[in-house]
Amino acid sequence: MQTPTPHIGAKLGEIAKTVLMPGDPLRAKFIAENFLEDVVQFNSVRNMLGYTGTYKGKRVSVMGGGMGMPSIGIYSYELFNFYDVDNIIRIGTAGSLSEDVKLRDVVIALGASTNSNYASQYCLPGTFAPIASFDLVSSAVEVAKERDINAVVGNILSSDTFYCADKTALDKWISMGILAVEMEAAALYMNAAEAKKNALCLLTISDRPLTGESLSAEDRQLSFTDMMEIALEIAK
């Protein structure tokens, strides 16, 4: 496919090898304005804002990925396959499903279990286990330690449903040691696997469904910078 694509208005070469991908395009704008230098906007199609700039001399892009696996599935597929992107780091929010994962903690998603049917397109003779790229995981762990950021590594749930009719569903995932629930990582990891590229999902815990705790809008803005800085530091 030629670039621009139906969903990304950039020309080939305007997007860096590493893309940070929050769900919210306004968070992409925040990162570009507060962390990057020499910023150029490369996308505004459907208001899914994308920017390229430099961070400590490294060329980095940041772009919104939308909500849910179909959305991030489209954008990550086009970035990996049509724009020669090598690394996508999702930076998002999640709900904790573990007593040991508190508000503001950063979860480094080693694996992404899912209730989605996304993997059916590959016609595999079994169940695929979507996992992050080890190099990105190990780098994120090291940066978190250096910066004294409370980070937890493990398996998360990428859910197709935000409001689930089965009110016992989360209990079943908790019984398997799932740390947190979000809605995008599994599709990102599958697209990366098929494209032979690298992916990682970093999540800030914004709420705890089991206790009813949640961050305020102001707290969310202040807390998410830890996750953003980890992602920027490991960009390459």
Describe this structure in words.
A purine D-ribonucleoside binds at residues 7, 182-184, 206-207. It is an enzyme of class 2 (transferase). It comes from Clostridium zeae. The chain has a single domain, classed as Nucleoside phosphorylase domain (Rossmann fold, 3-Layer(aba) Sandwich), CATH 3.40.50. The chain has 7 helices and 10 strands. It is an alpha/beta fold. 31% of the residues lie in helices and 28% in strands. Strands 5-8-7-6-9 form a 5-stranded mixed β-barrel, surrounded by 4 helices.
- Number of H- or I-type helical stretches: 7
Instruction: Give me the strand/helix succession.
Output: EHEEEHEEHEHEHEEHH
**Regions with little confidence, pLDDT below 50 for 5+ residues:** none
The total count of strands amounts to 10
Intertermini distance: 26 Å
Q: Strand count, sense and closure of the main sheet?
A: 5 strands, mixed, barrel
CATH superfamily: Nucleoside phosphorylase domain
- Total of domains: 1
What's the CATH C level?
Alpha Beta
CATH architecture: 3-Layer(aba) Sandwich
CATH topology (fold) name: Rossmann fold
Strand content: 25-35%
CA-based gyration radius = 17 Å
**How does the helix and strand content classify structurally?**
alpha/beta
- Across the major sheet, the strand order is 5-8-7-6-9
Protein name: Purine nucleoside phosphorylase DeoD-type
Site (Important for catalytic activity): 220
Catalytic activity: a purine 2'-deoxy-D-ribonucleoside + phosphate = a purine nucleobase + 2-deoxy-alpha-D-ribose 1-phosphate; a purine D-ribonucleoside + phosphate = a purine nucleobase + alpha-D-ribose 1-phosphate; uridine + phosphate = alpha-D-ribose 1-phosphate + uracil
Subunit structure: Homohexamer; trimer of homodimers.
